[in-house]
From TrEMBL:
<keyword id="KW-0227">DNA damage</keyword>
<dbReference type="Pfam" id="PF01035">
    <property type="entry name" value="DNA_binding_1"/>
</dbReference>
<dbReference type="InterPro" id="IPR014048">
    <property type="entry name" value="MethylDNA_cys_MeTrfase_DNA-bd"/>
</dbReference>
<protein>
    <submittedName>
        <fullName>MGMT family protein</fullName>
    </submittedName>
</protein>
<dbReference type="InterPro" id="IPR052520">
    <property type="entry name" value="ATL_DNA_repair"/>
</dbReference>
<feature type="domain" description="Methylated-DNA-[protein]-cysteine S-methyltransferase DNA binding">
    <location>
        <begin position="5"/>
        <end position="86"/>
    </location>
</feature>
<dbReference type="InterPro" id="IPR036388">
    <property type="entry name" value="WH-like_DNA-bd_sf"/>
</dbReference>
<dbReference type="GO" id="GO:0003824">
    <property type="term" value="F:catalytic activity"/>
</dbReference>
<dbReference type="InterPro" id="IPR036217">
    <property type="entry name" value="MethylDNA_cys_MeTrfase_DNAb"/>
</dbReference>
<dbReference type="GO" id="GO:0006281">
    <property type="term" value="P:DNA repair"/>
</dbReference>
């Protein structure tokens, strides 16, 4: 049950990633107070409803599309990112640092809450 709660929190944070931006598994884990749980964030995103959760906007700490195999189609993750204007070269987000959205910075204003449904 605690895993389900963590997964729901991952989905809520992921839903906040702006169009055309990306973040990392580790950045989400850190924001949720579990900085050593980047893999758990990945598991959550691998099992989510990708039509309702923009999991394609979450990459590894180096900008690599490590979760691409969990999307239908060979290059769907890349195609979704590119449709948002994110350039991907050799499975890596180009200009990763400029496109990186950090939930720990962006969600600090107190209007976002991870508790509840």
């Amino acid at each position: 049950m605690a895993e389900d709660n963590f997964f729901c929190k991952v989905y809520k944070v992921t839903a906040q990633i702006p169009y055309g931006m990306v973040t990392s598994y580790g950045a989400i884990a850190k924001f949720l107070g579990a900085p050593r749980s980047a893999r758990m964030v990945g598991w959550a995103l691998n099992s989510c409803d990708k039509e309702n959760v923009p999991a394609h906007r979450v990459v590894n700490r180096n900008g690599l599309l490590t979760g691409k195999h969990h999307f239908l189609g060979t290059n769907l993750m890349q195609q979704l990112l590119e449709s948002e204007g994110v350039e991907v070269t050799e499975n890596r987000v180009k200009n990763f640092e400029q496109l990186f959205w950090d939930p720990s910075r962006e969600l600090l204003d107190g209007t976002f809450t991870i508790e509840g449904p």
